[in-house]
Amino acid sequence: MTRQVFIKPHPSIFSPFCRSVARLASAYKVKRQIQIRKLHQKSSPNSSECSKSNLSLGGKVNHKVGTDKREPYGSSDEEEFEGTVQADFAFFDPKSDDFHGVKGLLMTYLDHQEWDISGFADLILSQTTVGTIIKIEEDDTPYSVVTALNLGRYKDHKCIKELTDFLLKACKDKDILGNLRSFFKEQMQNVGLLVSQRVVNLPPQLLPPLYDALFDEISWATEDERTEELRRSFCLKHYLLLTRIYEHMNGGKKKGSSKEATIFIKAEDEIFYQLSSWSFKFPLRIEQLANEELKNYRLMGLVMVVEAEKISMFRQQLHSLISES
Question: What is the pTM of this model?
Answer without folding.
Answer: 0.78
